[in-house]
Amino acid sequence: MADVEEVTLTLKENLGTRRVPKLRDTAFPDAGAAVRHLTHSRPPGAVDVMLVNPPSPDGGIWIRTQHRVGRRSREEMVWPQCSLAQLAAMLQPDYTVHIVDAIAERMTWDEFEKILREKTPKYYITQCTAPTLTNDMYGAMLARALGAKTMAFGTHVTPMPMETMRDFPALDFVLRGEPELTFRELIDVLEGRQAMRAEWVNTMITKTDPMWQPSSDPSTANGKGLDMSNVKGLVWRKEGEIIINVDRPFIADLDDLPMPMHHLLPLDKYRMPLMKGPFSFMVTSRGCPAGCKYCIKHVSYQYSVRLHSPERIIEEMKLFASLGIHNIHMYADLFTVNREQVMAMCDLIIKEGLKVRWTCNSRVDYVDEEMLKKMAEAGCWLISWGLESGNELILKRAAKGADPKKAHRALGWARKAGIKNWGYFIIGLPGETVETIRETIEFSKTLPLEIALFHIAAPYPGTPFFFEVVKNKWFREGTRWEEVDMDKGTVLQYDNLSAEDLMYWQKRAFREWAFRPGPVVTYLKMLATDMHTFKRAVRVGLEHFGWALGKS
């Protein structure tokens, strides 16, 4: 065995002035020191920031989104990661970025890890939802092991930052609420680039928060790490303690945001039932004034409502057209929240002759016949309606604020204008009984719907429904966050309706609605547009049919 002093001298020569720990009386040579300069180097093609929608927990298509829920997609809709594209735009042109949408790419964990090693990001950011939490944090753990600082945002970590940081030590930072400005400021602080920051970033921060003060300069750090206490909206670790900073104010004018970097997304991989070809999302507004207790959108944006201008929306449509995307879903908490914005947008589409087909969501009490006619003329062909229940008392208790009678009128107006209707219903809201479930099923059959989907109520953390479930002890024993999913199962256990009862009625509701002549024709139309979607829809339908038939 080589002499210890000889090994030390050789290492010093190889590593130059790099500090080498002194080898004392030991029989074990420091082999790691000889290659340390290799293992800690960043490869060609490495990026500053990787923005990630990680692989699926089970190989299926999962929906992760900043604004809404996380769940397995029954309808096989692959959701575009527009929030990652928006975050990427916040870093331009000062940092190199790479987006990985492992769901759209049907990427395995082995394939994902290979890309992670190739890109060796300095910073890794992902969005977290309750049903995918452990799976999401596995990606953060891999990135942390490769030396990246890890960040998370979304509808789970916003209301539960302390628990998430405590349970997953590989997570360095949580961005609560609206993440864009917190994200940019955090990266700048970590990189010591506040003084060199682009003027548009400073303008946007101070416009949103006139009382903003920059964080300490890295050169003034006291040797114990940077002081992050001035980065609003941030949750971080300071000498082992988890620190929750004050909240960041919402962005007042959404038009101040840079155009999302949609070209970094795998746009050709996004699919939606009944739609021919790829599509993408376009954010037209943030927030919703309605008070639905079960809705997770209020966790991130509370009850604020902010709009993109019609002109900004048209500009983004033209960007999509240049990328070959002519199918768009207006991704908003409530698309028709502002009638003037919608009508002006439609007028501009018609005036400029844009060839675009688009879909949106709405409530039955936020539309009128004239608006729906104009929307159809401007290219709208499908609306997703949050209908939830056919029982007025259930809706009232959930603070839905919509009369089931208005559903017939609104959906009738849409059908008359040539717009297809997609209805969402919820089984298992507080006060639910077998009788009210049957009322909802019969209600769904009377509506002019092309598609109806029945979900089980999910008490997502931070919603009023969540706190009601906790207070009344309606959580099933042994509940895990991964089970808080509207499709995968249920965490609810009422005195009069067991978890098994809720799952049975969810499947039976779909079976009763779907196995009628009208819906069957819709599935045949799916066959003509997307064979994969059709096969999946039929398989799910048969699963629901067989399961429900055996219990009826």
CATH architecture type of the largest domain: Alpha-Beta Horseshoe
Largest sheet: 7 strands, mixed
First CA to last CA: what distance?
78 Å
Low-pLDDT runs of 5+ residues are 1-20, 218-223, 544-552
Q: Mean pLDDT, rounded to whole units?
A: 85
Count of beta strands: 17
**What is the fold-level CATH name, i.e. the topology of the largest domain?**
pyruvate-formate lyase- activating enzyme
What is the radius of gyration?
26 Å
- What would you call the shape? globular
Q: Approximately how much beta-strand content do the residues carry?
A: 5-15%
**Strand order across the largest sheet:** 4-1-5-6-7-8-9
The top level CATH class name of the largest domain: Alpha Beta
How many structural domains are formed by the residues?
3
Tally of alpha and pi helices: 19
What does this structure look like?
With 552 residues, this protein is of the alpha/beta class. It has three domains: 4-39, no CATH class; 49-244, no CATH class; 272-551, tm_1862 like domain (pyruvate-formate lyase- activating enzyme). The protein has helices at 4-15, 31-39, 82-89, 109-119, 133-145, 161-167, 180-191, 199-208, 297-301, 310-322, 339-352, 369-377, 392-397, 404-417, 434-446, 464-472, 499-514, 517-529, 531-551, and strands at 49-53, 62-63, 71-72, 97-101, 123-127, 149-153, 173-175, 234-238, 241-244, 280-283, 285-286, 306-307, 327-331, 357-362, 380-388, 420-427, 451-456. It has a seven-stranded mixed beta sheet with strand order 4-1-5-6-7-8-9, sandwiched between helices. Strands 10-13-14-15-16-17 form a six-stranded parallel beta sheet. Helix 10 (310-322) packs across helix 11, helix 11 (339-352) packs parallel to helix 12 and helix 18 (517-529) packs antiparallel against helix 19 (531-551). The longest helix is centred in the last third of the chain and has 21 residues, at 531-551. The chain is globular and about 85 Å long. The protein starts with a helix and ends with a helix. 43% of the residues are buried.
